[in-house]
Amino acid sequence: MSEIDSFGREIHGSKFKGLLWAGYEGWIFENLVHCGYAWTQTLLIKRELFDIIGLFDEKLFASNDRDLALRIASKYKIGYIDQPLVKRRRHENNVSNNFLELIT
Description:
Blueprint: E1 2-4, H1 29-35, H2 47-53, H3 64-73, E2 87-89, H4 99-103
Parallel strand pairs: 1-2
């Protein structure tokens, strides 16, 4: 994942670049627990998996992405593609600017 600012310009030296999966493959549940972040826009998930693990928990305010990723990683091996698949726009109103909200 790469980051862009509110004008669409790439943010160099982003602290999120490569942080989510950081090249981990296979059984990565423990790595993901300690990582703290999960953005599901970078996940490719088979539809039938949602029948098994469920959908997003809508009761969670900001950590529903992490919850879903943890449920997947607890039961399945994870693959990794070493290329940016999305661009995350960062601005002052991003919910993810408050890291404590994301991980609680």
